[in-house]
Write a structure and sequence with these properties.
single chain, mainly alpha, 3 domains, 10 helices, 54% helix, flat
């Protein structure tokens, strides 16, 4: 790391060219590293949000709440595997890598759903696609679990998207 930071310009390459916001963010990161003074000692991980320097969920949660980031308590209280909780959290935040989210990250592939060729969004892939509706119906018939209600969709993907969901489905 010291060798990379000592070179001017920085000896770093990217697979894709940086542009727009990504380039500004990169310049901000490089500027913040200019005052870093590296020693010849072993690296030590320090969690800056806790006085002991070690990570704790409590300190992370406090930092999120103090910075006015809303965290749904209900999701974390459900007794399901952590990986499913994290997936649902990603779903709620709208950051699942559907084709529309990939396109926002400069991906150049086809943004259409591979099942029905409508634009692929989180709402479409999980709720609106004919195949998703078919799967929800099969789950309902086999396990007696109804498809998510408008209220549940609101909890998962937010009010703005529910309005779109209602308009497109009805």
């Amino acid at each position: 790391m010291a060798t990379v930071l000592a070179s001017i310009p920085l000896n770093i390459s990217f697979r894709q060219n940086l542009g727009g916001r990504n380039l500004r963010d990169w310049h901000r990161i490089v500027a913040s590293l200019q005052d870093v003074n590296l020693q010849g000692e072993r690296d030590v991980f320090v969690w800056a949000l806790h006085s002991s320097g070690t990570f704790s969920v409590k300190s992370m949660y406090a930092a999120l709440i103090n910075n006015r980031v809303r965290v749904s308590q209900d999701l974390w209280q459900i007794k399901i595997p952590s990986r499913i909780k994290i997936f649902l959290w990603y779903l709620k935040r709208g950051v699942i890598l559907t084709k529309d989210n990939l396109a926002r990250r400069s991906w150049n592939g086809d943004t259409k759903c591979c099942f029905c060729h409508h634009p692929e969004t989180i709402q479409h892939l999980f709720f609106q696609c004919y195949y998703a509706k078919f799967l929800w119906r099969a789950v309902d018939l086999m396990f007696g679990l109804s498809p998510p209600s408008v209220y549940m969709i609101y909890l998962l993907i937010g009010l703005r998207r529910v309005v779109t969901y209602i308009i497109l489905c009805y």
